[in-house]
Every structure is written in C-alpha cells, then in structure tokens.
Specification:
Blueprint: H1 5-23, H2 27-35, H3 40-65, E1 75-79, E2 85-87, H4 88-102, E3 107-112, E4 119-120, E5 130-138, E6 149-157, E7 179-185, E8 189-194, E9 200-205, E10 210-215, E11 226-228, H5 239-250, E12 255-256, H6 262-272, E13 274-278, H7 291-304, E14 308-310, E15 330-333, H8 335-347
Parallel strand pairs: 3-5, 11-12, 11-13
Antiparallel strand pairs: 1-2, 3-4, 5-6, 6-7, 7-8, 8-9, 9-10, 13-15, 14-15
Helix pairs in contact: 2-3, 3-4, 5-8
Bound molecules: 6-O-phosphono-alpha-D-fructofuranose.
C-alpha cells in the first residue's frame, strides 16, 4: 500500500535532517557534546582536537600528492633517535604538528618519535598547559608504496612546573592521558579519538575540508578471527609466543593480516575484532614499539572500546616509563584474544 505523500515527505525531511545534522557534527562540536560543557577545559580540549584535525588534513593532502611532487618521498639520509632511517614524510609530518600547535596557545611541549628531546614552545609564543605526544607518521615504510599510514597522538596535562626542562612529569602511566587517538590515511582519511567517554570515528570530507562524524561509541568485538604479527620474527620470539602462533596455525577460524602500519592493523581489529602483537624478541625483550606515543594512546582507545592492551604481564596503561622513548611489548585487541595470548605467556597454553 502506497504511503501517504505527507508521511513520505516527512520521512525524506527526517532523512535530510539526519544527514545534515551529521554533516554539522564536526570534531570540535562533538568534543563539547561529549563533555556537555563549555568550561575552559572543555574549550581547550575541543581546540586541541581541532588542531589535531588540521594536522591530519595537511598530512593527508601531502600524502595524496606525494607521487606528483618532488622531494616528498624517499629518505633524508638521517637516522632518528630510534635508530631508524628517516623518511622525508616523517620530517614533514613532524614539522606539521609543531607548526599547527606552536601558535595555538594550547601546549607547552611536544614530544615525538622523531625528536630526541621534547620541543618546548618558544617564549615568544603563547604557552598552554597541555603536552602533545605523537608519532607523526606511523608505518612510514609504507610511504613510498602508497599503502596505508597513520599518525598517533596523546594529550596530557602538564603536571608541576617542569623547572628542570626534563619533562619528568611525562614519565607517568598512560592512565594520565586526557585524550588520545589516531589518524588513518587510507582510501579515506579517518580520525578516531577518545577523551575517556567512548571511542568515536570521523571521516574527512575533502569537499568540506572537515572531519565528519562517522561512528559513535565504537565497541570492539569480544573475539575476532584476525591475528596481526610479523611472523618474520618467529625465531626471535620467546617459546610461549611461538606456541601461540602454532596454536592459531592449527586452529580453524584464524586469519593473518599484517600491513607494516599498526594504526591500520589495529583499526581493522577495532572494527572486526582480533589481536595485534608486537612481542619482545631475544635480542630486544622490550620490543620495538614506543610506550608514550604509540602503545599508550592506542591502549587508551582500545580499552575505551571495550578491548585490552597488555605487555603480556601488565596493562599497558599501568606501565610507568623510565625514559621518554621507552619501548614495551604490545598485545592489543579483543578481550578474548588478548587473554588467549596472555595464557600462553603466563601458563604455556
Ligand atoms: P616491523 C612502524 O614502524 C611500526 O612502528 C608499526 O606501525 C608497525 O606495526 C611496526 O613498526 C612494523 O615493524 O618490524 O614488523 O617491520
């Protein structure tokens, strides 16, 4: 039976309202909605997330043109504090975050995978009370092959006066973070964030130049089929990890996915379920991934989505770093799958 025209029109109007309302739910508005407040702290957080979004847009634009421009791809010839060869894109992205935040009046320091020491906002710039910790380009080995990449960010409030200029207050557990998330540069550019009130995703609409709300209160599946690990390190691992890998090899229902950019791999696991591992190895028991600006922000997001993140012996968010670029083993994803890996590490099966 045909619907009465007015109800169809009403239906269409409702649909229009819904999509218009979503198109107007920008990141900064969403943060204020989450906090249900216009307090100075809420305004700060909204402005911080807006700056992160601007950095993401600038990096996404550069990546989309990388193959068409001189001097974007390839290596600089330098080696960073991590001992890794630096890609030109690493330097550009690192500088983008500095430029975007330097005049914002929001931050006092920026700490990055690419910088030995934190960058202190110069005296002639407005100084804020937050610190941004970030990995400007995660998975930069994917840059020259046009594969997915990410940026990871963590926001903390400065504790104390930092009179010695050693940023000692940053050496605290990840539960001190007030916001965290990542930008995924894939077929579309997505920004996923949490301020401790759930996990929410936004998609960049290039025609608007805005990140538009895509999904609210994302929940990770309790279990998933994906296990994500670089099996090239198999013989470097502890026997317990090798036993877990043998278990997923012989058990029906598991599938391997590993892209070389953990933002991409962990986003897949956030959506579909499963587990990502970067365990320690015999030569490097602490593993490769950095705690403060890689594992801790991702752990905040995944825990807020109902998942787990552990070193295999303790929650990532409880680890207190001894130095800025401390590394930790990382097992992160669906609760059931993380528990399975922990069981092999702690009980051998
Ligand atoms: P490997 C990228 O450098 C990164 O930090 C993660 O994004 C990624 O999962 C991992 O390292 C890749 O390291 O040793 O597997 O090449």
């Amino acid at each position: 039976m045909a619907q009465a025209p007015e109800s169809l029109e009403l239906l269409n109007n409702n649909a229009t309202d819904k999509s218009l309302n979503r198109d107007c739910t920008t990141l900064s508005r969403h943060v204020l909605q989450q906090l249900q407040s216009f307090s100075p702290q809420a305004q700060d957080l909204s402005a911080l997330m807006n700056r992160i979004a601007l950095a993401g847009k600038l990096i996404a634009r550069r990546l989309s043109r990388a193959g068409l421009m001189e001097g974007v791809l390839g290596f600089t010839g330098d080696v960073n504090v991590q001992g890794e060869s630096v890609q030109k894109m690493d330097v550009y992205a690192n500088d983008v975050f500095i430029s975007v935040f330097e005049q914002s009046g929001l931050v006092c320091r920026l700490a990055s995978e690419e910088m030995d020491e934190p960058y202190y906002i110069p005296e002639n710039c407005p100084i804020g009370r937050y610190t941004l910790l970030y990995d400007p380009i995660d998975g930069s080995s994917n840059t020259d092959t046009n594969l997915s990449l990410g940026s990871i960010f963590s926001i903390r409030q400065q504790e104390g006066a930092d009179l010695t200029g050693e940023a000692a207050d940053l050496l605290s557990a990840g539960r001190q973070q007030i916001a965290a998330g990542y930008i995924l540069y894939g077929p579309s550019t997505m920004l996923v964030y949490t301020i401790g009130k759930g996990v929410h995703s936004f998609t960049l609409d290039p025609s608007l130049g805005e990140f538009i709300l895509t999904e609210e209160n994302i929940r990770i599946p309790n279990h998933g089929s994906v296990y994500s690990v670089n099996e090239g390190n198999f013989w470097q691992w502890d026997e317990s990890i090798r036993e877990y890998i043998r278990y997923v090899h012989r058990t029906e229902g598991y599938t391997a996915r590993y892209s070389g950019a953990m933002v991409s791999d962990i986003h897949r696991i956030l959506v579909q379920g499963g587990v990502f591992l970067y365990p320690g190895t015999l030569p490097k028991p602490e593993g490769k991934l950095r705690l403060l600006y890689e594992s801790a922000p991702l752990a905040f997001v995944i825990e807020q989505a109902g998942g787990r993140a552990t070193t295999g012996h303790m929650d990532i968010l409880d680890v207190v770093p001894k130095q800025l670029h401390q590394r930790v083993p990382l097992i992160i994803g669906s609760p059931k799958d993380v528990a399975k890996v922990e069981s092999f590490i702690q009980n051998g099966h």
